[in-house]
Amino acid sequence: MCSETYRKTEIKLFQNIKELATTEMIDAGKEEHRLAIEAGEIDKDGIPLITVIADGAWSKRFYKSNYNALSGVGCIIG
Q1: Is the pLDDT of residue 62 over 60?
Q2: Which of 71, 33, 26 is CA-nearest to residue 52?
Q3: Which among 2, 34, 70, 72 could bridge 58 via Cys, Cβ 3.0 to 4.6 Å?
Q4: Mean pLDDT for the chain overall
Q5: CB of 62 within 8 A of CB of 68?
Q6: How far apart, in whole angstroms, are the C-alpha atoms of residue 55 and residue 72?
Q7: Distance between CA atoms of 75 and 25, rounded to whole angstroms?
Q8: What is the pLDDT of residue 61?
Q9: Helix (H, G, I), strand (E, B) or coil at 76
Q10: Which residues are within 8 A (CB) of 16 and not within 5 positions of it... i.e. 6 or more apart?
């Protein structure tokens, strides 16, 4: 596959993945909201309290410059 074809395919895939990931995150947030209300975990104003665990990582194995990658990853689990 030539680099131009690869790039066009990459852009299309990224757009689809971004759309799907956004939809999944919104749906997961709605589910956590519902579960918190069902469990009675709400504050005095009626706002659901959702306990989460978060973590992230940043790669140091990037070989072009400075050994710092241009991206990282984060994860939040409810």
Answers
A1: no
A2: 33
A3: 72
A4: 88
A5: yes
A6: 11
A7: 11
A8: 66
A9: strand
A10: none
- Whether 49 and 78 have beta carbons less than 8 Å apart is answered as no
Average pLDDT over residues 5-31: 94
Total residue count of the chain as it appears in this document: 78
For the chain, report the end-to-end CA distance as a whole number of angstroms. 41
Four-CA torsion 58, 60, 63, 67, nearest 10 degrees: 110
Using the predicted structure, report yes or no on whether residue 20 has a pLDDT greater than 60.
yes
For residue 58, name the pLDDT band (cuts at 50, 70, 90). confident
Nearest partner of 51 among 42, 60, 59, 63, judged by Cα: 42
Global pTM reads 0.65
- Ordered DSSP codes for 2-29: -HHHHHHHHHHHHHHHHHHHHHHHHHHH
